[in-house]
Amino acid sequence: MKPLTSYDGLHCTNCGALMQGEFCHHCGQSIHSVLQPMHHMLEETVETVLHIDGRIVHTLPPLLLKPGFLTMEYFGGRRVRYIAPFRLMFVLCLLSFFLIHLAVDQIATRASKHSHPLVPVTSGMIEHAATPAEVRKALQEELSGLQSARDTGLLARSALDQADVAGELRQKANQRLIALGAAPMPATSLAAPAAAATVNVAGDAKPGDALHKAAEGESKPVQIGWLPDVVNARLTALGRQMQRNWRAVKHGDPAASAEAKQRMINGVFGVLPPIMFVMIPLFAVLLKLFYIFRRRLYMEHLIVALHSHAFLFLWLLLCTLLAAFAHWLEPHALWTTSPLNWLERILVLWAPIYLLLMQKRVYRQGWPMTLLKFWLVGWCYFWLLAIALMVAAALGMAN
After folding, report:
1. How many domains does the chain have?
2. Can you give the pTM of this predicted structure?
3. pLDDT tens-digit series, residues 293-332
4. Number of C-alpha atoms within 13 angstroms, CB side, residue 381?
5. How far apart are CA 186 and CA 174, in angstroms?
6. Is-contact 186 142, C-beta < 8 A?
7. Residue 293 counted as domain residue
8. Are 205 and 243 within one domain?
9. What pLDDT was estimated at residue 16?
């Protein structure tokens, strides 16, 4: 005899099937209406959040500490209490890149605020000159060295700062000339010993610079015969934008240089997540090729790749947080520096050990074959990842 339930005689409002529970066995729609009082919606929200938190508690510790455990649980059909592999990888990927982006921004900001010349500019040669001729020669050498440092990017100063340095050098030279009983150099002849250097130190363009920059801005368009015209046009635009960003960083004023750097950093971190989503199926292809005789489906290798990358993103997240915490704590508690450094070293060593143990546990081969395949897969993936990062850097520079 059929047991009586509270759902007897009720039909699904979506497909009309006879209800046998809270959810329709035919289409999956709930019997409960979405038009509920506000307190019911809050109760369901809290229940959903607590359910997700419960899955996080069951997912993150084994992901970090038990190589291959989540993958074997997934293969064994025990999946409800854990976060799905793709969702887990996706969330950790976004979180890790977000924090790394913040860390890189802070480093770039500190570097711009505390910029200093990598090549020291001093007046020692001028002050120790014994004759007026040696003073003029020392001034010329100092101005030439200042210009060379600026051209090679070894002088982290703005154009105004560089002009101030050149003015100080000339003032030192005049003081030394007066001390030696010689007449100081007039203003018109101060720039004569190194006219080209003086002009460039002040940030002005040399003769022909405008033509040179115009030629750089009008670089030849990309013409690859087997590519469509729209692709060639896009590559040309990316190349010219890359040149403009690079010139702004190397030769622009501080504000333009900082803006170009920030634009390129944002561009790199904007394309990294999509590129990593492409790398994951490629990593699964590598596993499929190296374990072709294990008779496993590609989807199984993809699950391994998702859990491997989820671990790596969690590892990057923890490394970034630990480095930021150590940097913040160091001025307040210096004694914590050594244990935190050791913890960072342990985390760094744990990543390859974890991936090796995971590969051994999932594919169940002997240690010699596992080590060989781990090295080969890692070597191939390293070059794929290097190419992907170069593409991300190029796209970021063209942002």
Report:
1. 3
2. 0.67
3. 888 899 999 999 999 999 999 999 999 999 888 888 888 8
4. 23
5. 9
6. no
7. yes
8. no
9. 84
